[in-house]
TrEMBL record:
E.C. number: 2.7.8.31
Transmembrane parts of this sequence: 12-32, 38-57, 78-95, 101-123, 264-286
A single MF term (Gene Ontology): undecaprenyl-phosphate glucose phosphotransferase activity
Membrane topology: Multi-pass membrane protein
Stored InterPro entries: Bact_transf, EPS_sugar_tfrase, Undecaprenyl-P_gluc_Ptfrase
PANTHER family in the record: COLANIC BIOSYNTHESIS UDP-GLUCOSE LIPID CARRIER TRANSFERASE, UNDECAPRENYL-PHOSPHATE N-ACETYLGALACTOSAMINYL 1-PHOSPHATE TRANSFERASE-RELATED
Membership in a protein family: Belongs to the bacterial sugar transferase family.
Name of the protein in its database record: Undecaprenyl-phosphate glucose phosphotransferase
Record localization: Membrane
Originating species: Flavobacterium qiangtangense
Amino acid sequence: MRRKTGRYSGYIRPFSYLLDLIIVNILANFLLPETLNIFSYHIFITISWLVIAWNIGFYEVYRYTKVIDILANILKQYFIFLIINFAFIGFYLKFSEPSMMIQFVTISVLLISMAKFFIYFALRRFRVVFGGNFRRVIIVGNGKSVEQLEDFFNENPDYGYKLEHTFNLNCNKKEELEQCFQFVMKNKIDEIYCSLADLSNTDINKFVDFTDNNLKILKFLPDNKEVLARNLIFDYYDYIPIISLRNIPLDETANKIIKRLFDIVFSLLIIVGILSWLIPILAVFIRLESKGGVFFRQKRNGLNYKEFNCYKFRSMEINDIADLHQVSKNDPRITKVGKFIRKTSIDELPQFFNVLLGDMSVVGPRPHMVSHTEMYARRIDKFMVRHFIKPGITGLAQTKGFRGEVETDKDIIYRVKFDIFYLENWSLLLDIKIVFLTIYNAIKGEEKAY
């Protein structure tokens, strides 16, 4: 999987989008005639530039991406953008000077390319000179492919990988694998590269389980046999093939932007349209029935296991075990007002402020209180995988009946299964479907809503 946790790309890419669109629109204003300096045309070139870029992967530049691949995408962007602009002026406007359009597109792409390569090489230089933005990696296995990858990491520090150790698995494989796992945790390793030729299916499963449960990145060096799987991703470090086993759609920048825009628009609609008048009304009823604040704040684990303050309407009497014991059926701590707002899921609405702040998403795996997260991480296999994306106010598991109190291990196991399915198969349509199902279930009433 491609992970960019805590890396520069989370900030560089939005900056690149903004810079490129500014360049395109400013040059259009200065280089094209007044007939094209209209609001609709600027909207057109903005949207068309982004759509083309997302489809050809113009902004999908990673530390191992070759310069030739960047140049190829620049040429694709140039010719497609030029053709679409000619199509626009040919269909909507009488425009008799095609050279002006060619000049505009050419200068735009040249300036954007210069900025793109400046960022690309500046980051490489930054890694070498200052030692920043490095990913700590280990390699597991033997053979020529392992030696090639070792050479690649050691000879190319500008790519930003720091090889900490190679485990050759020459003697006692079971013991060496255990040492490998301990080394990863002790030295805060980011990525593990395994040679498939040196691992059995059981060994591979051990690595998959270990990395899933500890939020580490796992990649494989293929052997000379054909490797088949439904969700494989191939990348190349120089000319060395690397395999990732899990594809997470929300790792892609375009999908992140789409989901974030959906979150912002939807949360603003709820905050302005509902919470603006509901908060004062509920505040009166909550405070009349019991002493304490209107809102309940609780530490929960979010994206990449980071803690954040999750907000809810207070539905219980003030108590010392709120952060330790989950609410159960007929829980004496729940107030009369609390019973109603929990039954209708109104108590969750303040979490739209968490969504607006960026700690949560409208749809995603439900976050657990910190003490429960630590407990389930020890007991339930792959529980930590759900922290690869932002937690949500609602999720696929909740629409399938796995919400509320965890009565048996089956409840949390199925919740994790649905969460993993969601993060591997995300789409905007799936988010919309889950939102509608959540609203429908809230109106209908759910057995575990207490």
